[in-house]
Structures are given as C-alpha cells and as structure tokens.
Amino acid sequence: MKAVLREAVTGQWKPVTLASLLGAAHQAGEAAVPLLIGVVVDEAVRTGAGGRLAFWIGVLAVVFLVLSVSFRFSLRCAERAANLAAHEVRTRLAARVLSPDGGGGHGRLSGELADIATSDAQRVGQVNLALPTAFAAVAGLLVGAVALLRVSVALGLLVLVAAPVLLLAAHLLGKPLERRSDAEQDRAALASGVAADLVAGLRALKGIGAEATAARRYRATSRSSMEAAVRAARSRAWLDGWMIALTGVFLAVVALVGGRLASSGAITVGELVAAVGLAQFLLWPLSVFSWVNGLLAQGRASAARVAEVLAAPPAVPPGSAPLPSVAGRVELTDVVSGTLRGVTLSAAPGELLGVVARDAADAVSLLAVLARDVDPVSGSVALDGVALSSVEGSALRSALLVAAHDAELFEGTVRENVTAASGGRADEAMAAAGVDDVARALPDGLDTPVSARGRSLSGGQRQRVALARALAADPPVLVVHDPTTAVDAVTEVALADGIRRVRAGRTTIVVATSPALLAAADRVVFLAGGEVAASGAHADLVAAEDYRLVVLS
C-alpha cells in the first residue's frame, strides 16, 4: 500500500511541488488581506488621508490578483497530478492483469477488477490533490499564526498550540473512515463484478429461467454494498461534524481573546479587525484538514486494494529464455496435469495435427499446458526442444498462440477485431475463415461495429471472426480449440480447407471433434482416459468404435 502511494506521489513530484508552492502563495495572499484591511483602518480611514487610502487599496488589488492566479494554477497542477497518477495506476493494473505470466486477476470477477482500475485508481490519484492542499493549509496556518503574533503574542501562541491538537484529532477521527472506506470499496467492487457476470450470462440465465435467482443474488450483493457505503458516509459525516465543531470552538476562543485585548487597549481597532479577519481566514486551513484526511484515508484503503492486484503472484513461474527463431516442433513428454495421465505426443514443424479428446476435460487440460496457464505436475512441454517453463512470457505468446473456443471479441469494427494482432495476413485470414461471407450479411460490411464481447453477432459469425483473428496473427505455432462448432457442415469444410491453406508450412494443432477438420489434418491423436489411445490418419482411426462415437455422434 505504501509503495503504491509513494509511487503515485513521486511519479508526479514536479506538478505536486508546483501546486504546493502556488497553494502556499495563495494562502499567504489570503492571510495578507485582513492584515492590509487592518492597516487601511489604522493608517487611512482613521487619519482620513485619501492618498494613503488609495495606495493601500491598490496594494489590496495586487494581492487579490496574485492570490487568484496562484489559486487557479495550483488547482490546475494538482488536478493534473491526480489524473496522471490515476492513469499510471490504471496502466500498471492493466499490465499486471494482462501479463503473460498471469495471476493478476486470479480469484476476482472482471467487474471487480474494473472497479479497482477505475474507482480505486482515481482515489489513489486524489492523494496528489490532497497533499498540495494540506501543504497550502499548513502554510496558511503558519502565515496566519505569524500575522497574529505581530498583532498579539497571545493570539499567535494560541494558534500554534491549538493547530497540532486539531491535526491529531483529524488523524484519529479519520481512522474509522479508512476502515469503512476499505469495506465500502470491497462491496462496491463485488457488486460490479456480480453485475458484469450476470450481464455476460444473461442469455443463458433466460434460457434456464434463472432470472429471479440472479436478481436475488444481485439484490443481496447490492444491498451489502449500499450498507457499506452508508457506514462510510456516516464515518465521513462524524469526521466532518467533529472537525467543524472543534474548529468553531477554536475560532470562538481566538475572537474572544482578541476582543478582550482590544477592549483593554492592548491592540488597536485596526489590529482587532485584522485579528478577527485572520480568525475567519483560519477557518479554511483548519477545516480543510478534515477533507484532506478523508481523501488520504480513502486513498490508503484503495491503495491497499491496488497493491493486492499488483503484488499477486504469477500463475506460473516466469521464464527468461528468449526464442530467437522458431521451427515449430511441439513435444509433450509424459505430461501429468489436470486429467492428463502421462501424455506423450508431438507435432512436427509445419504439421497440421488433429487432437480428439473423448473427455472434454482432457482437451481443457491439454490446452492449459500448451498455453502455459499451468505447468505440468510432472513431465515436460517443449517448443523446439526448449521447455516452455523456461521461455520468457511475451516471447512464448508470440511463438505459440492458443486460440480458445470461447475467445471474446473486442469493441470496434469487424476489421479492427481481425487486424488487432495481425502479422500482415489479415485479408488472407478473413478469406480463409469466411469473414467475407459474414461481412456481406452485415449492414456496413467489415466496418460494422461490434459490441462488447461480440454480442451483436451470431454465434457462427463470432466464431469465424475469432478464427480469422487467430490466423491473421500468423504465429509459428497455432493451437485452435473447436473453431467450427457454431457453423453448418458446408461452412465447416470450407473453414477446414482455409485453415490448411493459410497455415501451410506452419505448425497447427486443432483440438476438435469435427470430422471436416480432422480429415484435413496430416495426423490425428486420440485421447481417452487422460492418455494417448491411438494415433494416425482420420480415415484409419474412424474404423475404431471409440473414436467413431466421439467424432460422428
């Protein structure tokens, strides 16, 4: 948590420092105003000297100009620092969640991560607004105390003694707010995550008639979030209320002491006016401590949540070996992982290998080790003789791409989805995946906007766009999982031919049960019971009953 806050501040130290200095200048100007008014009363109004009155009014105008400009630019610098720091936190969170080594989003719903990257990041950034404000308030308090010391030693000492007491009170009173802000953000993030989860599965929920159950789940989560927010708001109200009360008592004491000094002749009428004005001026720097402490309390709570994501351990130990050139030989040797029980298989460079799993869990386990979402319990997975566990994450993702069956599309156009990671073969990939046919059925063709996760497209259209995106990436090794389950048999044959054509000379592993895809493969491996049960051409394997039941049922 401390590291996140420290980096948020030090990363923007220049605008924060400038904002603090300008804020101090603004407060000094504000403190000078009642002093100058006191001078006007004593030296101009009392004596009736018009020239001196005009002179001091001119001085007041200059002071007002300085404090106005300094306030404007101080706030601009502070807001800039706050927003840039929040942006930096969001960037770091995105990089951690998208890290090839994984683990950043483990155990959190997507909506919860989005809430951390928005609301919590914004609160961390607000620390850069709180610090210059606090510095300016302290500067104003000191300038006001010194000014009061000039008027009266008693009044100045009163301020210097009372200020630390009020600061300590603000810190102690802010502790409950920090705890409850943390709980509030946790509940809000969970509510966002549940909402995103329910929206993502809305069609499925309607299909099984579970709308009422889903609504009850979200209602309970939302109520919990609301109750946490109310508790946090109550703490903030108590903090503000107590600080206003304490500040009011303090100012009343200052005014009372100043009035007694004026009545006794210890200070002049102008000095009394200045003292009362300074007492009113001190209301802002004293009351702002409550606001600053509230921002800092919320910033600390949010920084702790951000730190949890940033410090999350990787899903797999990171590798460091580079892959200067990739021929494309993939080898699994005695792999035990998930439901796999000692699987040994290989794909030669340039081979189109089909993999059929009698149990869908075997296919999931195989894809997980190939994508290096997990490392095998025992055995090894190697690319060109180099263990995947030793390869640097981004290099591995560039060399070996696993295109999941449920790959999501992005917001943007159809064309932008395909070219997102294009290796320069986008047009060829779209033709191979039948995206041209999809485009003809859309109102704006390839420039038709795609909604989040591709929900504006049919299942078959989404599948073909996702396949085109994977083919366009053109990695040395491509693993695709069930890329044709939502299309008809004729389209399936065309897609199988397209995959073989585009991937000629490149290693491709197709994990599927589609007869068309398997017929296009150079070789097929059949997994049953977590082991390799058979290997050969699809035409030969289809004679076996177990294999035939899986691919032709």
UniProtKB/TrEMBL annotation:
It comes from the Bacteria. Residues 18-298 form the ABC transmembrane type-1 domain. The chain crosses the membrane at residues 55-75, 129-149, 155-173, 241-262, 274-296. Keywords: ATP-binding, Membrane, Nucleotide-binding, Transmembrane, Transmembrane helix. SUPFAM superfamilies: ABC transporter transmembrane region (SSF90123), P-loop containing nucleoside triphosphate hydrolases (SSF52540). It is a multi-pass membrane protein. Pfam families: ABC_membrane, ABC_tran. PANTHER family: ATP-BINDING CASSETTE SUB-FAMILY B MEMBER 10, MITOCHONDRIAL, ATP-DEPENDENT PERMEASE MDL1, MITOCHONDRIAL. This is Multidrug ABC transporter ATP-binding protein. It comes from Saccharothrix yanglingensis. The lineage of its organism: Bacteria, Bacillati, Actinomycetota, Actinomycetes, Pseudonocardiales.
